[in-house]
């Protein structure tokens, strides 16, 4: 299969490209930089230099190319967002970026489109013991400052599902961890990654598991469907980051009251303190034949620790 990957040089894009190539697919990776071109070339992929928010540039670069599928894995989250403004660029990528990439899909003749979504579309709140499935309400706004982010998640899915001539698939990832452990360790050593004292349970997924699920979904998922891509074991952010610290012999994170974290980080503080959700991956297991190699963050961190030593 010939696949165009947007966000190809991101922390999730790289393992996706690697797995696509290993599976025998031809990959065109979209990047905005010459460094990205070099990285993609090293992997064995072809590079397309374009900003996916610039529709004219994107279509110009794609002119004459042919592909069977487009993957939208582009975000603008080089570091955890603190305030709501930190999500604005990613919201644009989910709204306008999706529209432009669907136009790209038509330009290159692609009939499959997989877009990155996230489980926070179920709501930035405490869901208690309710198990969230793909049939649970998704994309509902409530007049809060989180509405633009939820609307952007809903937009990328809606556009993918409603595109003429394209089978759209949405992958609702949990919070990604694993391949960014070195970055987390650096933040811990700088004492710049505080955690909430009593945060809620969150859905996580290792980057490698997310990449594997993405390739399987590209090849086998039904068009018009969403899939939760999460591991089997909900955990608090404090547990994850403390686990990283222990695995890599780094300082334990600063533990602060939730109210203080929310005051200094209006977006991130709510995610780490107020949000709690139990998310089911049963549909992905049942329909895609996928299951996480790392059922919990503990399994993923053991592997990261072993690789370090």
Can you walk me through this structure?
By secondary structure, the chain is α/β, with parallel strands linked by helices. The chain has one domain (2-308): NAD(P)-binding Rossmann-like Domain (Rossmann fold, 3-Layer(aba) Sandwich). Helices cover 42% and strands 19% of the residues. It contains 12 helices and 13 strands. Strands 3-2-1-4-5-7-11 form a 7-stranded parallel beta sheet, sandwiched between helices. The chain has a two-stranded parallel ribbon with strand order 6-13. The chain starts with a strand and ends with a helix.
Average pLDDT, rounded to a whole number, is 95
Number of helices: 12
CATH architecture term = 3-Layer(aba) Sandwich
Q: CATH H-level name... which superfamily?
A: NAD(P)-binding Rossmann-like Domain
Shape: globular
What percent of residues adopt helix (DSSP H or I)? Answer: 40-55%
Integer tally of domains: 1
How much strand content do the residues show?
A: 15-25%
Count of beta strands: 13
Tell me about the biggest sheet?
7 strands, parallel
Strand order of the largest sheet: 3-2-1-4-5-7-11
The SSE string, one letter per element, is EHEHEHEHEEHEEHEEHEHEHHEHH
List the helices and strands and how they pair.
Elements: E1 2-6, H1 13-22, E2 26-31, H2 34-43, E3 46-49, H3 55-62, E4 69-72, H4 88-108, E5 112-118, E6 126-132, H5 147-162, E7 167-173, E8 175-177, H6 181-189, E9 195-196, E10 204-206, H7 207-220, E11 225-229, H8 237-247, E12 255-256, H9 258-264, H10 268-273, E13 276-279, H11 282-288, H12 297-308
Parallel strand pairs: 1-2, 1-4, 2-3, 4-5, 5-7, 6-13, 7-11, 8-10, 9-12
């Amino acid at each position: 299969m010939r696949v165009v990957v947007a966000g190809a040089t991101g922390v999730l894009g790289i393992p996706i490209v690697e797995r696509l190539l290993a599976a025998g697919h031809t990959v065109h990776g979209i990047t905005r930089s010459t460094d990205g071109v070099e990285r993609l070339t090293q992997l064995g992929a072809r590079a397309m230099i374009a900003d996916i928010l610039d529709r004219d540039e994107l279509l110009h670069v794609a002119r004459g190319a042919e592909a069977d599928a487009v993957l939208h894995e582009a975000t603008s989250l080089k570091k955890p967002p603190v305030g709501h403004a930190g999500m604005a660029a990613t919201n644009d990528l989910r709204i306008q970026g999706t529209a432009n990439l669907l136009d790209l899909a038509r330009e290159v003749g692609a009939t499959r489109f997989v877009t990155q979504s996230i489980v926070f579309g179920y709501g930035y709140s405490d869901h208690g013991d309710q198990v969230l499935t793909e049939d649970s309400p998704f994309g509902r706004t409530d007049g809060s400052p989180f509405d633009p982010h939820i609307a952007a998640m809903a937009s990328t899915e809606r556009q993918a599902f409603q595109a003429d001539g394209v089978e759209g698939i949405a992958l609702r990832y949990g919070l990604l961890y694993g391949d960014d452990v070195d970055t987390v360790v650096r933040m811990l050593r700088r004492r710049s990654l505080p955690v909430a004292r009593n945060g809620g349970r969150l859905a996580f997924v290792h980057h490698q598991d997310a990449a594997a699920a993405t390739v399987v979904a590209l090849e086998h998922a039904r068009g018009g469907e969403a899939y939760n891509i999460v591991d089997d074991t909900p955990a608090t952010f404090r547990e994850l980051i403390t686990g990283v610290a222990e695995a890599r012999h780094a300082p334990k994170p600063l533990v602060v009251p939730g109210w203080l974290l929310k005051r200094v980080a209006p977006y991130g503080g709510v995610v780490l303190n107020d949000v709690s959700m139990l998310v089911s991956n049963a549909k992905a297991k049942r329909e895609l034949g996928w299951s996480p190699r790392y059922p919990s963050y503990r399994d993923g961190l053991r592997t990261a620790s072993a690789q370090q030593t």
